[in-house]
Design a protein that fits this description.
single chain, 347 residues, alpha/beta, Quinone Oxidoreductase, Chain A, domain 1, Rossmann fold, 2 domains, seven-stranded mixed beta sheet, 11 helices, 25% strand, globular
Length: 347
């Protein structure tokens, strides 16, 4: 099968790989029908890298597919089922998993760098290929009528759902989203669905600003041309109830934009970012700052959310390409000419 393999030092190569086999009775073989290119993939391919990965691993952690074969101990799914895949499943047995932290799974640390979740498609073979083997407890059935390019959004959507639970957004709240990449746009549509009355999106790219408008942002700002702080103050009466940082280095700006007693979600993940943080302002405003990472314990909600059609997820996917065009997709993303690209493995 054709596979996109991380070769280190910013290199991703298309190679011919043998189709994977089940490794245990609890494994499932998935025929991949759609896999997203994530911002983390771009970080992995930076030089120097902004995120670690295992050299020799097939990339691709945002994916969906159809069950082809199930191990003897598998009861959750059966061949023919369409499934969403949680690429951060943890073992479910260690102390960290049992205390609610699969992202810190102890047995899986041997496959990842310390402090990093042992993600399928980053530290072990993923889904930029025709087939992938995953543990059964990572799978969630979804209706076969859901298009693959929509179902492939499950992993980033799970991250958004999980992190938003911490914010307790109420109908009528005002929200600022910093960054209109795929994650920023997912927050825009999800927070609107949660009842946010105003969602102000800040983005320097005109292409992505248009996407933010399409996704329902009530105001869209180019911070290079407009005073974002003045716009937010005018639109919210002094500061946003919630600010979502979806870029990486913009926490100081988020602190400036949130109201006293408000909440910030730091979701942008950049291993190289080291912003200077105004501690006195955090104290004076009594701000709550949450970190958001993987989609812990939210995947079970996704089939109902996605199948309902309540979220305009079609607006997030800008391109659908054959897997053999992965480098074209990466180039489009680096040039800011795409939002979310879904790859479809060829037969």
């Amino acid at each position: 099968m054709l596979a996109a393999v991380f070769e280190g030092n910013g290199k991703l190569q298309l190679k011919d790989r043998a189709e994977p086999k089940l490794k245990s009775a609890a494994d499932v073989l998935i025929k991949v029908t759609g896999v997203g290119i994530c911002g983390t993939d771009l970080h992995i391919l930076q030089v120097p890298p902004a995120h670690p990965a295992k050299v020799g691993a097939i990339l691709g952690h945002e994916f969906t597919g159809v069950v082809v074969e199930a191990g003897a101990d598998v009861t959750e799914v059966q061949p023919g089922d369409t499934v969403l895949v949680d690429p951060h499943p943890g073992c479910g047995l260690c102390e960290e998993c049992r205390s609610g932290h699969p992202d810190r799974c102890i047995p899986l640390y041997t496959k990842a760098e310390p402090g990093h979740c042992a993600t399928i498609g980053i530290f072990s073979d993923g889904a930029m290929a025709s087939y992938a083997v995953v543990p059964a407890h990572a799978l969630y059935r979804i209706g076969a009528q859901v298009p693959a390019h929509i179902a492939a959004l499950a992993e980033p959507l799970a991250c958004v759902v999980s992190a938003t639970d911490k914010l307790k957004v109420q109908p009528g709240n005002s929200v600022v989203v910093l960054g209109a990449g795929p994650i920023g746009l997912l927050y825009t549509i999800f927070l609107k669905a949660c009842g946010a009355a105003k969602v102000i999106v800040s983005e320097i790219s005109e292409y992505r600003r248009r996407a933010a408008r399409d996704c329902g942002a009530t105001a869209v700002v180019n911070p290079r041309d407009e005073d974002l702080s003045a716009v937010v103050s005018r639109e919210t009466g002094g500061g946003a109830d919630v600010v979502v940082e979806a870029v990486g280095p913009l926490l100081p700006q988020a602190i400036d934009l949130v109201r006293a007693g408000g909440k910030i979600l730091q979701f942008g993940h950049d291993e190289l970012a080291r912003p200077q943080v105004p501690v006195a302002e955090i104290v004076r405003k009594e701000i709550t700052i949450h970190g958001g990472f993987i989609g812990k314990f939210s995947f079970h909600k996704l089939p109902a959310i996605i199948e309902s059609g309540i979220l305009p997820l079609e607006k997030i996917v800008s391109h659908r390409l054959a897997l053999s065009r992965v480098h074209e997709g990466l180039d489009l993303l680096r040039k800011g000419r795409a939002i979310k690209i879904i790859l479809h493995p060829e037969e």
